[in-house]
Specification:
The chain has 15 helices and eleven strands. The chain is an alpha/beta fold. It has a single domain, classed as TIM Barrel, CATH 3.20.20.70. The strands form three sheets. A four-stranded mixed β-sheet has the order 9-1-10-11, with helices on one face. The protein has a four-stranded parallel β-sheet with strand order 2-3-4-5. Helix 2 crosses helix 10, helix 3 crosses helix 11 and helix 4 packs parallel to helix 5. The structure holds ligand V47.
Length: 357
């Protein structure tokens, strides 16, 4: 399918097909992709670009799974393994700048902690920080917690929600294609199970994000199928707030790659995501992985969200990430303004906190 014909479909607001998605990924006309994706982003979000004041907390890197793409996880007793107590987590949360509205909490699948520990952690955070949204546990963790609790996924989510869980981050999706997933992370739940957990969360009113890990051993077809599978679930639940493509960082992992993903591929992936995911409102550029410069340019490639202040993220750092790991609110605003866009500080669920006209 020639790009010009796809451009007509985009302008007419028509849904793009699998073949269109493959043609877009195969195209080298990056600026055409940017123009199309910008058209869609403008229609959905106007000139606005969102950010949130947030803090990432990773309570432990001890994990019963050993995914080959992950440089963060450790086995118990291995050098570099760590676990935080609930008091450590509170201590860390207390260091958050005033204005932080979201704690993004994800961990390894710890072999020993009981389900009650997770409930206690949420309760403790909610008690001390009632105004801060707890976006916690990937679908992979939720599946694991339901095994720990002996409850269904639905009841596990309900209990976590009662204890303060506000929404789910989008991690753990990786790539749904079974063959590739099996090579990357054989012990991890299947793509179908990841989707099932998300569907259950959406059905009880919890919103979530979605991700895709790209730039490892997947094909273009795998990427397109991943995006279309998310689109199909979103048609049924409407529960995804944002989609975040995650560029693979290979350092200290078992997947050997000579280099990071290219800026060209990063921008193309963001643009094609914007074009295929016509039913997800927000496309997020995660600056921790992309770097500040590509993140800013991505605002002309369909992106309307740049995540947030983040503060001390470990997963990317361990895999060779080169960004500092923290951007101040003013730096985020500056990045958006100097691209000619309007910064909007948001809460986790995209409620507007302040517009910086
Ligand atoms: O689940 C792990 C991925 C995820 C590597 O929902 C890696 O708002 C690249 O999900 N190279 C964690 N990626 C990050 C994540 C996220 C980030 C920002 C915002 C949100 C959100 C979610 O990172 C993991 C895994 O899929 N990951 N190792 C690696 N070497």
């Amino acid at each position: 399918m020639p790009i010009e014909l796809i451009h007509h479909k985009v302008l007419a607001g028509e849904r793009l097909s699998r073949e269109d998605g493959i043609a877009l990924f195969r195209s080298h006309d990056l600026l055409a992709l940017g123009r199309m994706a910008s058209h869609v982003a403008l229609q959905k979000n106007g000139n606005r670009v969102y950010f949130v004041q947030n803090m990432h907390i990773n309570p432990t890197n001890i994990c019963v799974n050993r995914c080959k793409f992950c440089a963060f996880s450790r086995s118990r007793g291995e050098a570099g393994a760590y676990e935080m107590s609930i008091e450590d987590i509170l201590q860390k949360a207390r260091s958050a700048q005033p204005g932080v509205r979201e704690f993004h909490i994800v961990s390894g699948l710890h072999p020993d902690l009981p389900f009650s520990w997770y409930i206690d952690m949420l309760n403790a955070l909610r008690r001390e920080f009632p105004h801060i949204h707890l976006k916690a546990f990937t679908a992979v963790e939720i599946d694991y917690l339901s095994k720990l609790s002996g409850l269904s996924v639905r009841d596990t989510l309900m209990k976590l929600n009662e204890a303060g869980l506000g929404s789910l981050p989008g991690g753990g999706a990786e790539i749904f294609a079974p063959g590739v997933r099996n090579t990357l992370c054989a012990e991890k739940i299947s793509g179908a199970r990841w989707l099932e957990v998300m569907e259950t969360a959406h059905r009880i009113g919890l919103r979530s994000n979605a991700t895709m890990l790209y730039g490892h051993i997947e094909s273009i077809e795998d990427r397109v199928d991943h995006l279309l599978t998310l689109r199909e679930l979103q048609d049924r639940t409407g529960g995804f707030n944002a989609f975040i493509p995650l560029s693979f960082h290979s350092q200290n992992t078992e997947i050997k790659k000579a280099a990071f993903t290219t800026g060209f591929d990063d921008l193309k992936t963001l643009a094609v995501s914007r074009l295929l995911l016509d039913n997800i409102d927000h496309i997020k550029a995660y600056w921790i992985m992309l770097g500040e410069k590509i993140t800013q340019v991505s605002l002309s490639f369909g992106v309307d969200d740049i995540d947030g202040t983040v503060v001390e993220e470990r997963i990317t750092k361990m895999a060779g990430g080169t960004t500092e790991g923290i951007m101040t609110k003013n730096e985020l605003i500056d990045l958006i303004c100097t691209a000619g866009r309007t910064p909007v500080e948001r809460d986790t669920l995209y409620g507007t906190v302040r517009i910086w006209d």
